[in-house]
Amino acid sequence: TSSAVPSESAMQRDGVSSVPAVPTASTSAIAAPSLASVTVRNDASSTVRLKTHFLTPEEIEAAEAQRNAVKNKLGATPATLRKFQAMSPDPAPATATTEDEVFCLVQMCVFGHLLSKTLCQRCLSTGLTIQQGTQFGLATKLELVCPHCGIIANSWSSPRQNAGNAFEVNIRAIMAMKQIGKGQTAINDFWAAMNVSHRGLHHKTYQEHLKKTFRGPETQRMESFYSESAAAVKKVYQGMDAGFTRDITVVYDGTWHKRGHTSHIGVGAVIEYHTGLILDAVVLSNQCLGCQTGPKPEDSEYSSWREQHICQKNTDAKSGRMEVEAALILFTRSLTKHNLRYTTIVSDGDSATYSALVKENVYGLVPVVKEECLNHVQKRMGAALRNLVQKSDKALGGKGRLTKALIDKLTDYYGWALRNNSNDAAAMQRAVMASYHHITSTDAEPHHDLCPEGAGSWCRHKAAEANGLPQPRHRYNLPGYVAEAMLPVYQRLSEPSLLQRCLGAKTQNASESFHSVLWSLMPKEQHASLIAVETALNDAVMRYNAGNQRATKEISLSAGLTPGHLAIHRAVEKDALRMGKAEKRGQAKTERRQRNKACKDTANYSAGSF
């Protein structure tokens, strides 16, 4: 057991009863433990720490009912709708562009046809043409030419950005590439294929805009955006508990730009559990190509280069350590940044991050409590059984033993046992061991003592017994040595300390969803710098928390541009599509929950009966 798991004596001291030992097939009944003390704060599935020793029993009950009502309402709301409702739709409406400000691709010969009959204002002759002059990226100086008078007028094909010298078309081109997960090479390839320019933007120009036009202003806007997200979270917690101060439950997980442990860039993000809002995030990089390829200290030009250089290395941590380092940064600054404490963390089985937080003592006397992601815990069963088959000296796999299909099925049954009893650790333990004894039973040695009783039991043998029917033959009849080898795995994965951390059936789905958004904007297969990932992170956080419409407006304004009305229109379409999909998933989830409840009301039901 991890050192972070509280001892049995500590659990009893805090008002939490210990869970009974691992049941055996001969156990006839297991008494349900008292998982909640007289104070609501010790409920392991709770995320609100109520100072209930100041409250009467009636007030305690009312506070718990209020908290559960808010949690149930949030749980029944699709995650996307939950975030959109929590965040204000548009706190500062921005003026969008008009029809006169759109860009239009026009072939140059079209201008010649339009102007061929137009008179020159100087000599009144016809034959005016438009020719291209100086080019800066995608911006071109268009020159009106008279065959007799020469150049009589000129104008740039694009205005310059608000309060800046850069051309709007170049900034919008960079923003467009960023929003579809492409970079400078893609700009060149796209505009060359469109026969507009053999090189849309020089790579130095592109990088300069990333640093100055996007990164700096976006970082400033993100501070207020994170503060707005934190305010929305506080409002939800105050709805759960009028005496709420600062302790919240968060989901934390790290992600890397490259797969494996070779990535030079890692990202850590803190997501509040109930609302799904990202409260803070950080990008770490242990490499700077500029430092590697630039002048060395002994070179004459080193001093001038160093003054201009922006180093893109901000940590010495190796790839595997980045998740821990990011967590320490984010948790340590939570009080100064949001006046919040991330006192409950939902994370995967990797204890390195949690152990580091405990060792660092980030909140002084206030401990950080870890709760397990149920999806990751479920995966442990499959991984453990596969390792058992691969590493055992005995033939545990193959026909009549632990096949791949049977391991997948047992993994699903383990997950269902946890989810269907997510508020009762003892019931979880019983259900897990019931599945073990059921699957390892044979015609000669049946062990169904832990299986649910009744005619509606998922256990065919208990159902037949209740209906007065002959016992059916066992499907698997696993050899005794296979069952013996499996038992330690089931005992380890049904330990009370582990199941206690699974109460509430929390998952890291929010983190997985956010990671997919982030890496869609900065694909893992293409090269990226710290600055490029930081700008992608800003865009991803805005999209994830508040939708594409809000993200488009915020990023445009930070880049010194008026938000494009066509871009806003497209963003609204994407948000509507996202909302529609979320509502369909939520409706399907509600219907599935209602069906399961109906089955439980009429029979001793368990999903995936076997």
TrEMBL record:
Location of region: Disordered: 1-20, 580-610
**What InterPro entries does its record include?**
Mutator_transp_dom (IPR049012)
Q: Which Pfam families match?
A: Mutator (PF20700)
Polar residues compositional bias: what residue ranges?
1-10
Specify the Mutator-like transposase domain's residue ranges: 121-459
Q: Where is the composition biased (Basic and acidic residues)?
A: 580-593
Q: What is this protein called?
A: Mutator-like transposase domain-containing protein
Native organism is: Amblyomma sculptum (Tick)
